[in-house]
Amino acid sequence: MSTPMELFVNEMRELFLPDEVYVMDGTHEEAERLANLAEKSTLEGRTVLKKLNWQEYPNSYYHNSNPNDVARTEHLTFVCTPTQEEAGPNNNWLNPNEAKDKMDGFFKGAMKGRTMYIIPFVMGNPKSKYAKNCIQVTDSIYVALSMRVMSRVGKQAIEKIGNSSDFFRGMHSIGDVNPDRRFIMHFPQENLVMSFGSGYGGNALLGKKCYSLRIGSYLGKQEGWLAEHMIIIGVQAPDGKITYFLGAFPSACGKTNLALLEPVLKGYKVWTLGDDIAWINIGDDGKLYAINPESGFFGVAPGTGMKTNPVMMKTLKNDKFSPTLFTNTAIDNSNNTPWWEGVSDKVPSDLTDWQGGVYDKNLGKPAAHPNSRFTVSVYNCPTLSCEYDNPRGVPISGIIFGGRRKDTIPLVYEAKDWNSGVFIASSIGSETTAAATGKVGAVRRDPMAMLPFCGYNMGDYFQHWLDIGKKVKHLPKIFMVNWFRKDEVGKFMWPGFRENSRVIKWMIDRIEGKVDATESEIGLLPKIDSLDLAGLDIDKEIVEKLLKINKDDWKKEIEMVEEFYTKFGDKIPKELKDYLLELKNKLTL
Ligand code: GTP
Ligand code: SPV
Ligand code: MN
Prior knowledge:
Bound molecules: guanosine-5'-triphosphate, sulfopyruvate, manganese (II) ion
Distance between the termini: 72 Å
Structural class: alpha+beta
Number of helices: 16
Helix content: 25-40%
């Protein structure tokens, strides 16, 4: 008798018709072997992996993708539930049978002449009761190697699955990297994702956004927990006490930088637990506990440098767990190192751009793609929290939401209570970034930073958040931040990055009841004197501006929230609609 796992692998073999099948064991020897193979392999004329300078970046490789395949493609991403209402207006929808027929057409025989990699993996520490078992198949060696960094790949996953049929199934083929034949289809009811035509992170590493967020959020709704697009950090104060925070910011809006923050404030230290995804459960003691299901960072390269994010620069130079991959950055030919805008002040004279051409800085284009990324293990991170592998997770005292907004949203404010915090999170607006294809810089609603990742109707999702609030005895405080306010000439008003520790300190003081706040229409604002600005060269007027509520801006904001809510009809919980009305009244007085 075959096990469900064996049946799945056989089914995949018959569908994809690969020349060879290889089951990954997750060992370092295997990674070395696959990396060597990738160095000799080409895809569409591009060498899959190139060795970089190992004196500078130990055990690292370079990959550049097809220029049409550099970011998530939200318009090609579908949630295939039996009814369209379940998927909601926040998702593209297709009937599951129709979606499967479509994908079958692409999948049949797609791996002829190729190797099919079977990737057994666990999301979360295998010892945790919150961990989930998964298998992905792929014909991309780059995807296989990336998965090994981002998740716990290997025999322990096979052992954990055993004879059970309870595991996530991920089907992936890079196909011919043709955007006309590219789809990412989710089947939450079947614990299944089908992805074709892209090798890019969020489209192809199916344990990440596809499983841990879209399928995860659906499972969370069923089982009473939350799967969120959030970082997890422990912030140590000078007295040694560690306060755990979650932080949700839309794609390319500052999560990784906050997760590896080196505070400018003396005596403070940030311990890193996760930079992108959190699974949040209610503990027996009535607190919220979070684990990071991932084991790697898939981070934005541009903007990462010794001044902005020294901890990440050190992480990229460690090789406790390797290899580390760099994708679509430029290459500095003088020493064969990856290069991107922000890693050094000076642009090197001999650069190969992300597409493999000679870089000419006079053309005014960046050398690295704005969404170029590194894939690196969390175990290389010098600030990794000793609680990272704790199967229970860490107890959460504060949740930070944020967006990228040049106006309207103040530097920081605090929600009065859980429900108003849920309202604030449900109404987040943020300027779009290069992390997804399409227009950059357009303000869109991105509730809880989950618009592209919520695997079911967002109206039901808001209700789920309110319901969790009713079940948790010790609710965390909820904050909203905006690091991205700009002045009249388009310059960031707040220095950001390491200086953001000043705002986090205020949050800890609030949690501990050490400082008062000022009530405003939208929530509680810091009194300017309670923000620790010592040693920061910033005009008091600018800080005042950063904390000011402009009623006209806010009236426009409310209109945008109303318009967004309208799309969901009756699905928006009454509490949130009432809160919106209350806010509207306060602002028009
Ligand atoms: P994803 O991996 O797409 O989810 O992105 P992320 O949310 O982890 O964002 P990340 O920290 O990688 O930052 C994205 C971009 O914003 C990078 O170019 C950063 O340099 C920039 N950035 C991050 N934090 C700040 C900040 O405090 N101020 C400013 N001005 N830019 C920031
Ligand atoms: C994001 O876009 O939010 C990312 C990168 O973290 S990806 O894994 O591609 O989704
Ligand atoms: Mn992300």
